[in-house]
């Protein structure tokens, strides 16, 4: 057992309710909450300015910060310029909306269609993504506030883009297990640019493997692969699960390796 070196968070959808009630219920047990803004249409699904103001007040009351998962119903890497422009405009609007809240990072999906394209297709995707980022990033004071999430394709495919634009990286370790990528290699590729980790269980016995479940469902060997980099990681680790049972099971699994993990998040609020 060792003291956890990282900040600990989870998502804003542990209870089947809106963002603010979730933060009110679980915020006191965590250092950071991942605000899920998966959808951008209709406009009303994006938290309002009053919502964000209330989140800022809750952050002070509960002593926590936020990271924001940007919408996934748009595509900054789309082949069509019109769609890339629409994506950039939407992302800028969402990022601006959260400007008054203590947000540490905005997590971005750089979407790629399956199956894996040819080398020419990969280069076209990289060029489209570059043009999309050129539309988005001039609006930001600090491009490193945007973290590219590791998805189903090899993380090295966006390494040059991360370096070129000064972005950060969100390493989704569950995705690494699900799709068979080397976690250690990703840390070698991106090093200190990894300032957010998504952590969730993966049941590789199922075909296809099921992810975003409790860490207790992960096979022991895979679980060790996930735990090893956390022992020296000082950024934020977010348990990216979406119900209370998976959250409780994940906290209990973490507590087997690290001290100062609060397990009973339904008990009266108390800081760790």
From TrEMBL:
GO terms for molecular function: isomerase activity. Residues 24-252 form the Xylose isomerase-like TIM barrel domain. Transmembrane segments: none annotated. Gene3D superfamilies: Divalent-metal-dependent TIM barrel enzymes. Pfam families: AP_endonuc_2. It comes from the Bacteria. Keywords: Isomerase. InterPro entries: Xyl_isomerase-like_sf (IPR036237), Xyl_isomerase-like_TIM-brl (IPR013022). The keyword Endoplasmic reticulum does not apply. This is Sugar phosphate isomerase/epimerase. It comes from Desulfobacter latus.
């Amino acid at each position: 057992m060792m003291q956890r070196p990282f900040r600990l968070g989870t998502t804003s959808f542990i209870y089947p309710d809106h963002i603010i009630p979730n933060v009110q219920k679980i915020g006191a047990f965590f250092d950071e909450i991942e605000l899920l803004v998966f959808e951008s249409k209709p406009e009303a699904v994006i938290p309002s300015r009053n919502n964000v103001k209330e989140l800022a007040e809750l952050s002070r009351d509960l002593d926590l910060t936020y990271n924001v998962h940007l919408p996934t119903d748009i595509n900054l890497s789309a082949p069509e310029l019109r769609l890339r422009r629409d994506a950039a405009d939407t992302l800028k609007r969402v990022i601006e909306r959260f400007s008054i809240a203590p947000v540490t990072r905005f997590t971005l999906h750089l979407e790629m269609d399956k199956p894996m394209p040819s080398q020419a297709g990969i280069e076209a995707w990289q060029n489209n993504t570059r043009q999309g980022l050129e539309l988005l990033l001039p609006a930001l004071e600090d491009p490193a506030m945007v973290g590219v999430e590791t998805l189903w394709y090899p993380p090295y495919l966006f390494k040059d883009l991360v370096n070129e634009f000064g972005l950060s990286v969100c390493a989704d370790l569950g995705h690494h297990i699900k799709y068979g990528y080397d976690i250690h290699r990703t840390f070698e590729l991106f090093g200190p640019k990894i300032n957010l980790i998504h952590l969730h269980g993966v049941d590789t016995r199922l075909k296809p493997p099921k992810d975003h479940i409790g860490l207790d469902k992960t096979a022991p060997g895979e679980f060790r692969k996930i735990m090893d980099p956390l022992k020296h990681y000082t950024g934020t680790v977010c348990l990216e699960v979406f119900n209370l049972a998976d959250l409780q099971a994940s906290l209990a699994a973490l507590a087997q390796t690290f001290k100062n993990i609060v397990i009973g998040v339904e008990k009266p609020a108390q800081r760790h």
